[in-house]
UniProtKB/TrEMBL annotation:
<dbReference type="InterPro" id="IPR029066">
    <property type="entry name" value="PLP-binding_barrel"/>
</dbReference>
<keyword id="KW-0663">Pyridoxal phosphate</keyword>
<dbReference type="Pfam" id="PF01168">
    <property type="entry name" value="Ala_racemase_N"/>
</dbReference>
<dbReference type="GO" id="GO:0030170">
    <property type="term" value="F:pyridoxal phosphate binding"/>
</dbReference>
<comment type="similarity">
    <text>Belongs to the pyridoxal phosphate-binding protein YggS/PROSC family.</text>
</comment>
<dbReference type="InterPro" id="IPR001608">
    <property type="entry name" value="Ala_racemase_N"/>
</dbReference>
<feature type="modified residue" description="N6-(pyridoxal phosphate)lysine">
    <location>
        <position position="26"/>
    </location>
</feature>
<feature type="domain" description="Alanine racemase N-terminal">
    <location>
        <begin position="3"/>
        <end position="220"/>
    </location>
</feature>
<comment type="function">
    <text>Pyridoxal 5'-phosphate (PLP)-binding protein, which is involved in PLP homeostasis.</text>
</comment>
<dbReference type="InterPro" id="IPR011078">
    <property type="entry name" value="PyrdxlP_homeostasis"/>
</dbReference>
<protein>
    <recommendedName>
        <fullName>Pyridoxal phosphate homeostasis protein</fullName>
    </recommendedName>
</protein>
Amino acid sequence: MSIANNLETLRLETEAVGVQLVAVSKTKSNSDIMEAYEAGQRIFGENHVQELVEKAELLPKDIQWHMIGHLQTNKVKYITPFISLIASVDSLKLLKEINKHAQKAKRTIDCLLQVYIAEEETKFGFDHAELVELLRDDEFLELKNIRICGLMGIASNTDKEKVIKAEFYELKMLFDGIKASFYRKEEYFNILSMGMSSDYKLAIEEGSTMVRIGSTIFGKRVIKHFKNND
Ligand SMILES: *Cc1c(COP(=O)(O)O)cnc(C)c1O
């Protein structure tokens, strides 16, 4: 199957039912990305700053780039001039840094707060209590150049559907609760980013509004072209 064919099939399962499709292009070549672009795809996700910046410089300017990986505070300044969404915000420190550079770039930057839902100990993100604490924090409330548009989560890397479903359910409940308590009148708080190639169907059943899909579009990631330290 070609990239264009893969996208066409996926759109029926996502955009056709009102779910945004982020094409995760990490490690993939610019020509692969252009193939998806020619097929109409405009939202692409990357997880390393250097790779993201290099691609954004060379590829069409109407691409909306999403940062979906762990972001170090010292790298924030490289992406703030152009990034469309930072989907992986996991600390107040990072939010303050994004706000500072957004101000310099005279922008308001859309962000998702990453929530820790998986069993694994290694995943980044807030737990429920930390999330509520953040949303009540005076320092957080002062940040005027960021806009919190929703939540993001990564389910456990398991083939136990029940476990994955329960994690997505939990995140959806949390999203509804946060929306009702903190963003009732803010229409922009409407993104629940959950689901990747292996679990996007479950995620959509559980209320996802944005899926991040790589290998189902571009094929397996075999070679890593970029250093893994950013
Ligand atoms: C790589 C990645 C994806 C996409 O993974 P696939 O299994 O290739 O669909 C989604 N979300 C995040 C945060 C990723 O790092």
